Amino acid sequence: DDEKVEEARKSSVRNEIREKHNIKPEDFLIMTGGKIDNAKKQTLLLMEAVKRIQNENVRLIVFGSVINELKEKVNKLLDGDRIQYIGWINSEDCYKYFAAADLVVFPGRHSVFWEQVVGLGIPIIVKYWEGTTHIDLGGNCKFLYNDSVDEIYKLLINIINDKDEFSKMKGIAESKGMKYFSYKNISSRAIEV
To answer: pLDDT band at 38, cuts 50/70/90?
Structure first.
C-alpha cells in the first residue's frame, strides 16, 4: 500500500519505533515477523545466529504469534535489548516496524511480508523457494538454502562487516524495490497488459 509505505518511511516513524525498543541510531537492527509454529521454526535459528554475533550494536526484533510449545524456546533465546520478542502487532504497524529495520530476515516459508519489505526499500534475506526469486531485483536480496544457524550467521556477519556490500543492497532496495512493488506501478503495468 503506497500510502502506508510513505508513512512508514518517515524518519520520525523510524526513530519512534527504534526508541520504543531501546535501539540506538548506530545499532544495526534486524527484524523478522510472522507466525512461529512447527512449520516455521526457522525464526529460532535466526535468533540463535544473532545471539552468536559478538557485536553489541547488532539487534534483532521478532514479532508475531508463537505456539505454546515453542514459547519456552523463544524465551531462552531472548537477550535483553539485543534480541527482543515483542508479540503480535497489528497489520498497520508491520510497515512501520519493517521500515525501522536496517535488514529484514525471513528464514522460513514465503509470506506476503516479503513483498511488503521489498516495497519499503529495505534489504532482505529470505529462504530460497522455487518461484520466489522475484524478490531479488539485482542485489537487494540474499538467499538462504539450508535450515542452519551457521548459514544464517555467516550471511549476517558478511553483510554486517562488509559496509560496501550492505550499501549496495540498500541502494538497490531503495531504487528498485519501492518502484517495482508499488501498488500504483503494479496497477499501471496490469492496465498496459
So the answer is: confident
